């Protein structure tokens, strides 16, 4: 079998693949920002020491973490239209799903990050008259965030890889773009190879960035 | 929302009629039977992939800790390759690309291809754990082994690995639970496992919530089973007076 990549001209790439790549990036970024915000809230709930906050947060995080992502995607695709009473596009549904799903994983990272900040820092905050909110916002969270930055980014790389699973509900992402191009030109082997190479290039270079960042943070500390 | 209809599981998959006793007679299959067989597929994909992943992952992890530069390079390349491509893309590579490039593989059932895809994907993560486990041992252990006249393989076999594997049991447990979850991606190449069942049965019966709840429950049960088995192993192999023993 000989491989022929010549059909992959700029027109084909911009026509089929670019739209998918943009959606994959958009999905990753929205789910990352939304997931970190929600995840931090969940982590604060779990560490609040109040059972009525901690128990639901723990239940949410543990449930999300024990269900396969594909099933979560299918669940939301089924449930959201029932709840809002009208159908929802696969792309929008994917964005909601990934934000809520990743929140569980980011919350575990943020929880570890918050716990890595010495207790004395919190006491110091209270001692100078800060409220709980001020202590968290000005003292604990910035340090937790900084300590956990490499781990948060590693999770984001995993998130980017996982966005390919929107295949289950037929959303048009990077992989789908390659797949459609492959079907149109009857060259599935080549398109899957290029797709794999592109995913690898993106994820590998991001993980190199994370590695360098990790080294820099380690020195400062 | 409509009321529950759990009877859907007793329905025949072809005629749609409710079978008495929930099991079809003489070759007829109810949704319950279909789901149980799908559960079997999920577990077999996961278990076989775990065997592949543990074998390849341990081997690569060990290579990455040897003094040989080329072994380390190979191990690192393996890990980066299988870690930085999404699982779904890897499954497509095994299913669509590799048989096209290596014609003898065309006759392989897709089950085998998926087992290798999931196994190699997970082997990258396991190699990281195994490497970290070996490197967490004091360097003196390796020197001591070599000093008493063991060859390098003997040092690994009798000194380093027995401790390292015990140390990495907890992370390997979570990888084993991950492999159950990740086996759901096999739906993409039409393996008749739980997620595939969920999608098809949902479409045929329109009782998505009942079907998804049952499937999600089975994933919970499977992960819980793995967790118990791993805990049992962890307790059985515990070395008295060493890391994590009571």
Outline of the structure:
Chain A is built from eight helices and no strands. Chain A is mainly alpha-helical and 221 residues long.
Characterise the protein shown here.
The complex is a heterodimer of chains A (221) and B (246). Chain A is mostly helical and 221 residues long. Chain A has a single domain (10-220), classed as MetI-like (MetI-like fold, Orthogonal Bundle), CATH 1.10.3720. Chain A contains eight helices and no strands. In chain A, α3 crosses α4 (90-115) and α4 (90-115) packs across α6. The mean pLDDT of chain A is 90. Chain B is an all-alpha fold. Chain B has one domain (6-236): Orthogonal Bundle (MetI-like fold). Helix content of chain B is 69%, strand content 0%. Chain B has nine helices and no strands. In chain B, α1 packs antiparallel against α8 (194-205). The longest helix of chain B is centred in the first third of the chain and has 33 residues, at 31-63. The mean pLDDT of chain B is 89. The chains are: A mainly alpha (221), B mainly alpha (246). The A-B interface holds A 1, 66-71, 74-75, 78-79, 82, 157, 161-162, 164-165, 167-168, 175, 188-189, 192-193, 195-196, 199-200, 203-204, 207 and B 1, 80-81, 83-90, 92-93, 96-97, 100-101, 103, 177, 180-185, 187-188, 195, 198-199, 202, 208-209, 212, 215-216, 219-220, 223.
CATH class of chain B: Mainly Alpha
Question: In terms of per-residue confidence, which ranges of chain A show pLDDT below 50 for 5 or more consecutive residues?
Answer: none
**Overall 3D geometry of chain B?**
elongated
User: In total, how many beta strands of chain A?
Assistant: 0
Order of helices and strands of chain A: HHHHHHHH
N- to C-terminal distance of chain B: 52 Å
Based on secondary structure, the structural category of chain B is mainly alpha
Please give the oligomerization state of what you see. heterodimer
Structural class of chain A: mainly alpha
The largest sheet of chain A is: none
Return the CATH topology of chain A: MetI-like fold
Biggest interface pair, counts: A-B, 31 and 39 residues
Nearest-angstrom radius of gyration of chain A? 21 Å
Contiguous low-pLDDT stretches of chain B (5 residues minimum) are none
CATH homologous superfamily annotation of chain B: MetI-like
What's the CATH architecture name of chain B?
Answer: Orthogonal Bundle
Helix-residue proportion of chain A: over 70%
Beta-strand residue percentage of chain B: under 5%
